[in-house]
Amino acid sequence: MTGVASSARGDLKLTSVTKSYGDFIAVNDLSLVIPEGSFFALLGPSGCGKTTTLRMIAGLEEPTHGKIALGSTDITDTKPYQRPINTVFQNYALFPHLTIFENIAFGLRRRGLKDIDDAVNKALDLVELPHLAQRKPTQLSGGQQQRIALARAIVNRPALLLLDEPLGALDLKLRRQMQIELKWIQREVGITFVHVTHDQEEAMTMADTIAVMNEGEIEQMGSPAELYDNPKTAFVANFLGQSNLIKGTISGSDGDNHIVDLFGQKISLQKNRSHAVDNSILAGIRPEKFRISRLETSTSGNILTGGKVEDVSYIGVSTQYQVLMPWGQELMVFEQNDDGVAPFSVGEGVNISWEPIFTFALRGDEDAEAGTEVSPDEDLDEE
Amino acid sequence: MKTISRWFGRNLIRIYAAIAFTYLFIPVAYTFVFSFNDSAKSNLIWKGFTFANWQNPCGAPEVCTALGNSIKIGFLATLFSTILGTMIAFAIGRHKFKGRSSTNLLIFLPMATPEIVLGASLLSLFLVFQINPGFWPTVIAHVLFCMSFVVVTVKARIASLDPRLEQAAMDLYANERETFRRVTLPLVAPGIAAAALLAFSLSFDDFIITNFNSGTMTTFPKFVYVSAARGIPAQANVIGSAMFILALTIVILGQFVGRKRKVS
């Protein structure tokens, strides 16, 4: 390998990394540690700075401020070819003038390694395409090109593998299959994977740690379950799955719980699940945590009464309801179709209830709509 | 009546194509046919069929000297204009620098300037510097006007090159030099080759600028022009036809190879 940084191994550490283009700040004072051997996802809408972050790790962009280190080696100022880091590009970027074999051998040859046939064939076996070695990239399908791009990166046994929306161009079925395969390959080779995506389901399926990015900053980082169950911000609550966020005030205390007033109705909230800074909060409940029941039925846990079914969508495994509450807000309720009870119909009066432990709370001054829809500023993040 | 007009309607495009191709190829066919004319000096009237001209293409005085000069000038002009033009194309296509847009404009000037003006100005320039017209001034003049075409052709190829391929090469341990040699150059090569062929045919073909700057040296176009006054020898037709057949063969071969590559 060339350069001093190339033998570096260990955790990837970004310290106050900032990237600005003129007045536009793509990545703002970002610090994070990606542990060696983990499958890490950078998740966010397009334009949030995730691809820029990835390109800075690869060495294709230079940070305006900050440091990037691999283990104990500072790689901030090294060239991409001096870093033991390889990338699977969004459009694969296979060399059209070289055969598949030569594409995969490219990195090994540049490092001056001899007897590379074995390594290349093993990489082809790993992605299950050994019969395509002598083809040209244009003769391959999108899914095959994707695997070759992966093989071309993995064959170098980098300390870090970067994946830039690698499944974006594939159709849904193939994408699901590749998600499982990528996860399997990561476990097989034990290389740290850093995966950039805007698809929350993809990130949750594959990664053991997800960093949710928005406007150049990390909103929250954690395991998929942590992020989903206890989001810290409205953006995370809405971007990862769907959430009902209801304005309320903390009106009292009961042991480990807050008593929260939601438009005159009292519910309870575990104190350690509140990210609010004062008494004003947004109470959050995931739609599938709600139970829906007729007005006269008695239920336990947190209850909100006086709802009216506005819309019913039957989608097989579940039924999705829009329920209009007395204070004018529509709540989403997903009910599993496992109880043999006929769905409620539009116009019926209902109560909504849930287990208090599922309640989370955000700062009251947050925008409840943040992250619900991705702004159409496509491509801002890509090149 | 109806059937005739219907037939006509169905075959109009074919008829049009036949007429267009006839129009295009009559002069070529004429040149080819008259290369077999058993003429003594003037090659205007058909006097009988002979292979003599093809067996002895250098038979007419000076014709092969002129051809040799044209090939030499064409080769040198192609070499220099392709190298310089490719370098300019990379500079304009890949880098941002002060004066890039004005360079872009200046490159177009030789193409937009009438050849007669360019030829005359070059001659006066050479004379100011006390360089006598001849072989090298002609080469320099040809490099000048070929270069613009090379820049335009190669630049188009560079523009269609995905920069991510070069980034991928850098990501895969290729330094700047290796990236250029292993990825950029091979991918731009077809454009450079096309530019070189274009440069050669432009140089080989040129009469006006050459006429101003070549002095007493003859080139093939000059030879044909001069002999037109007293009758072009049939050997000129032989050389013209041979060039045409050679070019045609290269094109057909290129198509054939291209198709074969796509199929395999």
Automatic annotation (TrEMBL), chain A:
Domain ABC transporter: 12-240
Keyword Cell cycle: no
Family annotation (Gene3D superfamilies): 2.40.50.100, P-loop containing nucleotide triphosphate hydrolases
Membrane-spanning parts: none
One GO MF term attached to the UniProt entry: ATP binding
GO annotations of cellular component type: ATP-binding cassette (ABC) transporter complex
Presence of the UniProt keyword Membrane in the record: yes
The entry's keywords: ATP-binding, Cell membrane, Membrane, Nucleotide-binding, Translocase, Transport
One Pfam family, short name: TOBE_2
InterPro entries named in the record: AAA+_ATPase, ABC_SmlMolc_Importer, ABC_transporter-like_ATP-bd, ABC_transporter-like_CS, Mo/tungstate-bd_C_term_dom, P-loop_NTPase, PotA-like, Transp-assoc_OB_typ2
Cross-referenced PANTHER family: SPERMIDINE/PUTRESCINE IMPORT ATP-BINDING PROTEIN POTA, SPERMIDINE_PUTRESCINE IMPORT ATP-BINDING PROTEIN POTA
NCBIfam families registered for this protein in UniProt: potA
Protein name, UniProt field: Unannotated protein
Source species: freshwater metagenome
The organism's taxonomic lineage, starting at the top: unclassified sequences, metagenomes, ecological metagenomes
Automatic annotation (TrEMBL), chain B:
One Pfam family in the UniProt entry: BPD_transp_1
Residue ranges of domain ABC transmembrane type-1 in the record: 67-257
Keywords: Cell membrane, Membrane, Transmembrane, Transmembrane helix, Transport
Lipid bilayer topology: Multi-pass membrane protein
Cellular component aspect of the GO annotation: plasma membrane
Annotated localization: Cell membrane
Transmembrane segments: 12-33, 73-93, 105-129, 135-154, 183-204, 238-258
One GO biological process term: transmembrane transport
Family affiliation: Belongs to the binding-protein-dependent transport system permease family. CysTW subfamily.
Protein name: Unannotated protein
Annotated source species: freshwater metagenome
